[in-house]
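@channel sequence for tomorrow's demo:
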Amino acid sequence: MSDGTSPRLRGSLEGIPSYKPGRPAAAREGGASYKLSSNENPYPPLPSVLAAVTQEAARFNRYPDMFATGLTAAIGERFDVPASHVATGTGSVGVLQQIVQSVAAEGDEVLYAWRSFEAYPIVVQVSGATSVTVALLPDERHDLDGMAAAITERTRLVLVCSPNNPTGTAVRRAELARFLDRVPSDVLVVIDEAYREFVRDPEVPDAIDVYRDRPNVAVLRTFSKAYGLAGLRVGFAVAHEPVAEALRKTAVPFGVSGVAQVAATSSLQAEDELLERVEGLVKERSRVQDALREQGWSQLPASEANFVWLRLSERTMEFAAACESAGVVVRPFAGDGVRVTIGEPEANDVFLRVASEFVTS
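structure tokens (generated this afternoon):
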């Protein structure tokens, strides 16, 4: 019989913030509704990828390849890294959880900028470790000098989100090198590049080039954004072998489905076609940013991702409500600002109309 008490749960779970996904667009009378809240790729799956997924779906009564051998080999070939340096997981956030579990426990510190990816404090607190945050600079970039100064003997992991979610700013080559030179060699630095394919600034390095001669650097990537596989949950890390092996040990067994593995491998094979779509989104990003600046959004940070960031402070929720009334759902961060995904031109036009009215109100 129960004595009326609850099971004893870990105290470190108290107060964990809940992850808030981007809300879907609700049906709207008299007009279309658009979802610009989740940084999804607005294009449907490529026919070649859809065909491969459809064929693989006939076998989903069987367990997938636990080690994603074919996908791991394809990633290694695509990025010119040893397959033993690749670890897969359920999206880049799933791999991030594997990383935190591998290096940080109770009493350890994980350092990152704020505001940054909303999952960081959740994953860190679940592990029992402590988050240490350093505020972004006034121009929405990482304060790498401040982050270097915040490293202590308890620091086990540093997360650098570039381009940063939700501000879209990216870390440049020289500042990253200076920062990494200051980080102790036994502290793992993870460069989270979920939006790498949208970067056009030549001064922003490809972190896979950075990792090659730095054993304490790992890189996170995802197939959710540029590759358009958000619903299938597949991401990966590139890291030197001791780290990559630890990530394989902490992975959920059979976590990446067979359908996801086939979709990701097929996407790499169709990469040229996919990157044409990315280029279209980058051009649309430029159009949206130019229009916002013309409207008077003078503090708009230059985005290297597939979204733009408006710092609205106390007017954040008001702006989000105005967008929803007009037919677009955006992602508000109460008290800070609004992140708006670059979507279809029609959706972007609706957003721009709201922004124009708002900035002049």
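heads up for whoever presents: DSSP finds twelve helices and twelve strands in the chain.
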